[in-house]
Amino acid sequence: MTEPTESIGKAGQAWGDAEKAEWRSRQHQQRSYADDVVAKIDALRDRFDIEQYGELDYPPEGRFPLYAIRTRDWDDALPTALVTGGVHGYETSGVQGALQFVDQHAADYKGRINLLVAPCVSPWGYERIQRWNALALDPNRNFIPASPAPESAALMALVAPLNDKMLMHIDLHETTDSDETEFRPALAARDGKPFVPGTIPDGFYLVDDSGRPQPDFQRAMIDAVAKVTHIAPADPDGTIIGSPVVAPGVIEYDCKGLGLCAGVTDARFVTTTEVYPDSPRATPQQCNDAQVAAVRAGLEYALAH
């Protein structure tokens, strides 16, 4: 059985290179990016333009090409919407939901909006069912200038030329039970801080950007997803994951200030989805469907407003 992350290093002392190397040595491939993701992207080539926008080089594990899917016959006169998934590689429905949206619904928006979809931003993390990248960095805290996370830097370079046309960005995530049992303790150990237990929301919720809130946009997506899976209630103190609930199923973060993927553009309409795949009330397919419902409702709202 793998030792818990907290056993790495000394309590109260942030990790150095040796501790990070020990952590990385414990991460093992559990699924295939090539089979689960790249094969599905390749199957879309007859309908969409596929772009390799970068490549991760993590020896000895190997190289991981980064792919984006674009609307064919891109029209510079139209606005652009960005859909991202797998910023945290272990969050499966973010990846598969993005791919399902493209396969089943992206063609419906031809002539209305350009779509740019990066379905798996962190393929090393996808294969290892891991929140961090191979450098023990969280890509979703490193969308910052001169980012040390190559996953984040590559995506920023991809979207930068399109920023003035960006109308909407939806970043697809999950909140899992392993956040509390594995990843939050790992974060505390890495940073030499005490672990403070929290709670995991039972259901779907959204994270709006406190710097440019769009409550009606968020509500449109919550209403659509509620037809697919249940919406997370607030904790007794009126919060979800420690943040005040500003509307049913909605909290706010400072996306740019925290270096989150949702802050990577200046789009007017922005959200981060959070599906709860460990709920006994939700199947993996429901989680994928909830991501798709959020994207579709978000697009319709953004185009109408």
TrEMBL record:
Q: Where is this region: Disordered?
A: 1-28
Single GO biological process annotation from the record: proteolysis
Gene Ontology MF: a single term = zinc ion binding
Q: Where is the Peptidase M14 domain?
A: 29-305
**Spans through the membrane:** none
Q: Which CDD domains match?
A: M14_REP34-like
Which InterPro entries would you find in this protein's record?
A: Peptidase_M14
Q: Which family does it belong to?
A: Belongs to the peptidase M14 family.
Would you tell me the protein name for this molecule?
Peptidase M14 domain-containing protein
Upper lineage ranks?
Bacteria, Pseudomonadati, Pseudomonadota, Gammaproteobacteria, Lysobacterales
